[in-house]
Amino acid sequence: MKKKLLKTILNQIFLKHKLSKNHSEICSNYLIKAEVLEAKGHGLARLKMYCDRIKAKVINPKPKIKIKKISNSVSCVNADNSIGFVAADIGIKQAIKNAKKTGIGLVGVKNSGHYGLSTFYAEQAVKKNLMVFCFTNGPPAVAPHGSKKSLFGTNPICFGAPTGKIPFILDTSTSMINRGAIRRASKLGQKIPYGVALDRNGTITTDPNKALKGSQIPISTFRGSGLAWMVDILSGVLTGSSHSGKTKDPFDDFTGPQNMGHLFITINPKIFIGGNFLKEMKINVSRIKRLPKAKGFASILYPGERKNKTYRKNLNKDIFIPSKILKEINYLNAIK
Amino acid sequence: MKKKLLKTILNQIFLKHKLSKNHSEICSNYLIKAEVLEAKGHGLARLKMYCDRIKAKVINPKPKIKIKKISNSVSCVNADNSIGFVAADIGIKQAIKNAKKTGIGLVGVKNSGHYGLSTFYAEQAVKKNLMVFCFTNGPPAVAPHGSKKSLFGTNPICFGAPTGKIPFILDTSTSMINRGAIRRASKLGQKIPYGVALDRNGTITTDPNKALKGSQIPISTFRGSGLAWMVDILSGVLTGSSHSGKTKDPFDDFTGPQNMGHLFITINPKIFIGGNFLKEMKINVSRIKRLPKAKGFASILYPGERKNKTYRKNLNKDIFIPSKILKEINYLNAIK
Predict the structure, then answer these.
(1) ipTM for the complex?
(2) CA closest to A110 among chain B residues
(3) What pTM value is reported for the model?
(4) Same domain membership, residue A148 and residue A39
(5) What is the chain A residue with the closest CA to B133?
(6) Which of A7, A258, A333, B125 is most buried, judging by how many CB atoms fall within 10 Å of its CB?
(7) Which among B53, B113, B60, B55 has a CA at the least distance from the CA of B89?
(8) Which helix (H) or strand (E) holds B98?
(9) If you write DSSP's letter for every residue of B124-180 in order, what string do you get?
């Protein structure tokens, strides 16, 4: 489908679900961006879920989002159960402002929901010449080291820095795969890779439905589990949001809002060495890229480069929508 | 050896190597602490190296360390090529002060050296009721994803938070094993675990000497490589220190100072939800500890608990020193 047409349809759908024009635009843009980035687990496969949650009154389509200034560096955003995209968009913009003023910004967002890719927000900060951390937790997906029951979300760690060219953006879940990818495989009847998830008996499975009922494998066992726990504290406990497995799964649990938390830390990279920062970043990247390549590698890419290539490759292409998801879109758009 | 006697000897050795009384105390305490924590790769096995570097004039025993205030939250420490322990100790204390004043502290340390365990510094911040990140880079040990040559250090990620009881301290290298453990195995003629390092041809090896000439394996391939790159940017590029493989190996390369960088970020965890933070942290920890256990696990520990147990177990015990390292100590102590 043409992106322009898709955007019109998505906007219509969100408007029908009582979102403001501005919030509809924000949501449509991020959903399309996920598709262009081929992060399809965060794209159109989630549209019906968002609409279902609005209908079930567990997402607030008309949130009164409040930004509270705690200091020149620190702000708190109460998202009033908005769609995560909208809350996180406000949050990162505030974190950018704060760092521009003081050199360092810290913004906690509470009463929010799933916000798509951390990359969306990191990129905005990097384009304003800032370094950035984005943290968010999620519904139970990964068992803490020593337990056989899922509790942590896939809790990504996202870090961005300007390079003078394509932004350096590391956006890695602390699990072997993100949950959206398993959800989408389930929806489309596909398998998931071997070695990323266990069924409920603790056996490795490639069946996405069994994986959803079991647990995902953290990266490097206790290390990944510890990193996921860190993200749970930063985005959940610190911000006053749900944590330790209490974030509701947006697809399955309509008993209340997700009350998810996000944390953004922004840093002016010139704070210690001024303009030399970009000079040194360029040296850093070029030294590493010049290293001898391992077997099977033609080049060494820094985090963010591959996503950027994908983005540019797809930017002027139509978006392929599987028939099952297209049916959902048509259904949602036909609602009076 | 009795800890009291060991401390007297270590102090004597550092004093003979021209360190001030205060700096000698700091270094002796951290070396002994590493032994008590059974992080022996960061303990006495490094003593001779520190002394050799002082003799070779690539560590400055009488540094004029300067702390520059950039804002109420941000400071820069120029360590004047001091031993890393001393510089990092000053850095974390400044980061604690800054967060106490403003809610968030950011301290960059440059012209420093290997500082032992990040845990040492994280613990200090947590004991002052702060959250903390500690980042430091190191000499080449890990090949970037796509390369066959080591460039990143084992670049640990360290995060601490108060729990009301034992501090939560995640201190994980972004490689499968820390380099000190390989160094120590090499010194003592021991093997290293399977699956943590490659020889120079890219084959897995359990021979520490081959591993030192080859490369260490990052956690979860491209994810660990990305995290190591992040730490290189934060502690190296941002602070104006060595980066992208230019940090000299302290054991092998005496051609100049290490010029290592450290970055400390401190956060008042009450900044968003006040006294509820500790209440929620306790809920967080107890919910996770109550989860059903996986096979072979009697309990679920949070990061830092095991180290704390080790510390308490060893606190009143003598320190076992392998004869090879004891010889080094006796030699250094006999120097006039």
Answers:
(1) 0.95
(2) B272
(3) 0.96
(4) no
(5) A230
(6) B125
(7) B113
(8) helix B84-102
(9) HHHHTT-EEEEEE--SS-BPPTTBSS--B----EEEEE--SSS-EEEEE-SBSS-HH
